[in-house]
Amino acid sequence: MKILIIGSGGREHALAWALARSPEVEKVIAVPGSAGMGRVAECVPVDVADHGAVAELCRTERIDLVVIGPERPLIAGLADDLRAKGIAVFGPGADGARIEGSKVFAKNLFRDAGIPTARFETFDNADSAEVRAREWQGPLVVKADGEAFGKGVLLCDTPDDAVQAVRTVMRSEAFGQAGRRVVLEERLSGTEMSLFALCDGKSVLPFQTAQDYKRIGEGDTGPNTGGMGAVSPVPFVTEEMLKAAVDDILAPTVNALRERGIDYRGLLYAGLMWTADGWKILEYNCRFGDPETQSLLPRLESDLAPLLMASANGDLGGRELCWSDDASACVVLASEGYPGAYEKGRIIRGLRLAEEMGALVFHAGTSRNDQRLFATSGGRVLNVTATGATIAEALEKAYEAADAIEFEGKQMRRDIGRNQYAGKDLKA
User: 24: domain range?
Assistant: First the structure.
């Protein structure tokens, strides 16, 4: 089959890498792709926002399946427009993508379906939100309703923090139109986990577990980012706990969507927290997570291509996923200044050496300069992934490879996964 991947980041590079390995795949095309994806996909500079142009490319290339990586085209209805032309798509339509595109929609869905989640209230008036934030008892989370690309969630320890967060979102419009409404939510205490599941509109097929690290600073300090690293599996999660997450949260979510007339075909990504009362859903994303995908796919032994096609066709019945017993770790190399302003165009060296050391290097924000050298072009630049018998071993390999890569201003967290293993200290 021929597969078209929409996107250009590390997640899409990992998807292209996994799909290109399938004996069922003749060709992988990426739109727009990236300089680093060229070894596993043909990159075509089509404007993703031009749905007609994407559909025309599918026609001329005789694409069998479109896999949509980022949330923005899903929220914009690209899957709907392609399906209307008879093209198979892995990814929900705009109605299903609201589970990520609107925090208010998602929280109301949880409440109506009885899915365990944090206590919450929603507001479209800044004055009212500030008053309630001042009155709230206990730590609070302020969330922009719309899609803020991983940065619209503000953790607040005090009422003053919460009021300032509301002002940042609603009055200062730090996240633009995404902050016209806000969710004030109880801040839960527990351990987080990311859980992916393939969906065919009727059922879910869960992946293995992963944990990502969102904040820029070590010890989970500083502002949120798109993700600074991930490990898989999550050791504390037993088979019974995983089954409970599927039975109590993911499966009821797909059922609740179907009851609303939403045929959800694609990836459902649950951000979960294990609390004293069991699992609670923090939020959903409507696509593969980044950088969890980069840690999960190297462990997947099943052929990904027919699984994504089965999801797109609404028929996952009887399928299973096979996984390596190895653990994996992904370390993100970011530009100086990220998640704030950063410079582009800084030359990257050591990529070949890192790969020779056994790591997979997925390109998240790179380009080629006039001398055909790789250079930085994004906040998150590279995802360095390694596997090993244990998380500690995978992390040691990933960090050794990450240290072999150099560019001016390179920053990375050196505590990724430390909470998930007991063993010798990693090299500083």
Answer: 2-91
